């Protein structure tokens, strides 16, 4: 039975946008594992209840069910050791874990503060009500206020990416000559923004823009083919 991956989408099932789902999708592509995408929406929690979670990604591999993007990456690496390695050894696994922790606590929250108000327009009515209610409770303010003044804040966001920029000015990918788990984890936040928001997080002349482009074009351009608000 083919691997199946529950992925968050909007009213358009092709518009997969969760950064955590993109981590899992890029990992499957890296491993060269055939899989089926199962579009999932915020209010379809019953579809993944057997996984013991109410969030995606959820990966189904035969009778095996795995949730949480990091757990999925580790499971794929350990379950398919004969396929291309995501980590390149235990040292690479530890470094990828650091990138995941940084993305979860620094990068993605900073991106959310710039783009979260763009997401409701991509959702159907039921999901839109759920998303606005839960995210406004999380932020403690209307979503429009969360992203207010974002054009003025964009340069500060870009400046904070300096460590990533310096690293990628020395090599094409975080993992070196070819991409690995750390690249997919960091890239997924930028892909999230690209799919849901017209705000150009990265300037065209930025080395990070070129790095993102290489990953958009990887695996036959799967990531670039997804409908996106930012076509830059």
TrEMBL record:
Xref: Pfam families: GST_C_7 (PF22041), GST_N_2 (PF13409)
GO MF: transferase activity
The UniProt record lists the keyword Transferase: yes
Record keywords: Transferase
Domain GST N-terminal residue range list: 8-84
Designated name of the protein: Glutathione S-transferase
Organism: Roseomonas gilardii
């Amino acid at each position: 039975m083919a691997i199946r991956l529950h992925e968050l989408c909007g009213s358009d099932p092709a518009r997969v946008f969760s950064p955590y789902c993109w981590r899992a999708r890029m990992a499957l592509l890296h491993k060269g594992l055939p899989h089926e995408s199962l579009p999932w929406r915020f209010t379809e929690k019953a579809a993944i209840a057997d996984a013991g979670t109410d969030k995606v990604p959820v990966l189904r591999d035969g009778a095996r069910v795995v949730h949480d993007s990091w757990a999925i990456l580790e499971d794929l690496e350990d379950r398919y050791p004969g396929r291309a390695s995501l980590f390149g050894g235990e040292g690479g696994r530890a470094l990828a874990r650091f990138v995941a922790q940084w993305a979860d606590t620094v990068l993605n929250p900073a991106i959310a503060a710039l783009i979260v108000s763009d997401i409701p327009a991509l959702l159907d009515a039921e999901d839109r009500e759920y998303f606005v209610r839960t995210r406004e409770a999380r932020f403690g303010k209307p979503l429009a206020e969360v992203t207010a003044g974002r054009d003025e804040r964009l340069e500060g966001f870009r400046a904070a990416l300096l460590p990533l920029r310096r690293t990628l000015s020395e090599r094409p990918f975080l993992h070196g000559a070819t991409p690995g788990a750390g690249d997919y984890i960091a890239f997924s936040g930028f892909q999230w923004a690209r799919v849901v928001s017209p705000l150009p997080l990265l300037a065209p002349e930025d080395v990070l823009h070129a790095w993102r482009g290489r990953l958009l074009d990887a695996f036959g351009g799967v990531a670039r083919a997804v409908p996106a608000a930012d076509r830059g």
